[in-house]
Amino acid sequence: MSKSTNTSKAQAIDKSSTTGKKYHHGDLRSSLIQEAKVLLAADGVEGLSLRKLADRAGVSRTAPYHHFKDKHALLCALAAEGFEKLNSFVNTELAHNDPKVALPKLVRTYLEFAYKEQEQYDLMFGRRLWKLAQPTEELRNIAYACFRNYAKRITGFLTGTPDKEALRLAQASWGTLHGLSHLLIDGIYIDLAGMEEVSEIAVGIMLKSLQGKG
Fold first, then answer.
1. How many angstroms separate the first and last alpha carbons of the chain?
2. Which intervals hold domain HTH tetR-type (predicted)?
3. Who's near 103: CB < 8 A, 6+ residues apart?
């Protein structure tokens, strides 16, 4: 059976499974991911299942399997969606060629995303997908593409810096954001009341590093 035939068959099943139930605007996979995010935020990874997802989305219990072969594939899709958002933030917030303008925007946006989407953020960078199992090709591709994009834009703020040194600076600055995000999520050392001040200090550290290398 051809790939196009399989795709058409899956689409037909998806369409029939939603009859009399929720309308998914022609893209069941995206709708399932959004519904899964709600379940993930409410019940955590352990409380998420394809069966619960189908019930919440208002589709047959077999419909999600046409898009995610198992729970692991669904979790990888959720993580990939998070990296798509981060990549979009990088493109938007680092578009300005002045790091004094760009970095404060990125730091605030990054921390806000991590705090608002805590379960998804933990999933994106957690051991469950990267150490205890194999990430899907989709997840691996967008995760690395996101960092390469960030590194390229950070390097763009530098002049005359060796590539390896610029890469290490990008890794260290991302690590700063990631570490602050986890402290905020875990509620240790940082809370929402102090996030703005901490963000400003983080920006200062990053700018000093860039200026020292530029």
1. 57
2. 26-86
3. 94, 203, 206, 207
User: Rounded to the nearest 5 degrees, what angle is found at the Cα of 142, between the Cα atoms of 135 and 1?
Assistant: 70
Question: DSSP 3-state helix, strand, coil percentages of the chain (rounded to 5)?
Answer: 75, 0, 25
pLDDT at 195 over 50: yes
Residue 117 has pLDDT above 50, yes or no: yes
Q: Mark out the alpha helices in 157-188 (DSSP H runs).
A: 163-186
Q: Which of 144-148's residues contact partners 24+ apart within 8 Å by CB, and which partners?
A: 145/83, 145/87, 146/83, 146/86, 146/87, 146/90, 147/174
Q: What is the pLDDT of residues 41-50, one digit of tens each?
A: 999 999 999 9
Distance CA 123, CA 88 (A): 18
Q: What is d(CA 198, CA 186) in angstroms, rounded to the nearest whole number?
A: 15
111, 184 Cβ separation under 8 angstroms: yes
Q: What angle do CA 136, 138, 144 make, to 5 degrees?
A: 100
